[in-house]
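Q: Got a minute? One more chain.
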Amino acid sequence: VQLVESGGGLVQPGGSLRLSCAASGFTFSTYIVTWYRQAPGKEREPVAAISSGGSSTNYADDVKGRFTVSRDNAKNTAFLQMNSLRPEDTAVYYCGSNGAWGQGTQVTVSS
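A: Always. Here it is, folded:
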């Protein structure tokens, strides 16, 4: 089981980023995917989740309306589109599925 995140970087407040989570080693289409983030000095927290088929999504209150989670089961990949980014969104972002985690991708929101 392997998950690899990508797409992080440095962006100005109000900007956008699209994170990707590439999965391998398991039947991706049968598992929920959850995006988490961990800011310095804070615990890892869930940000968004998507059902196995993609028909159901959930979001943390502070990202609702700004972040969109999606997936392409044909490509074994999940995405997190992040718009209207704020400095408080700065964190390492991880995807989780089937009990596994990726290595994370750094998102820094700063002017």
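A: The chain has a mean pLDDT of 97.
Q: Perfect, thanks.
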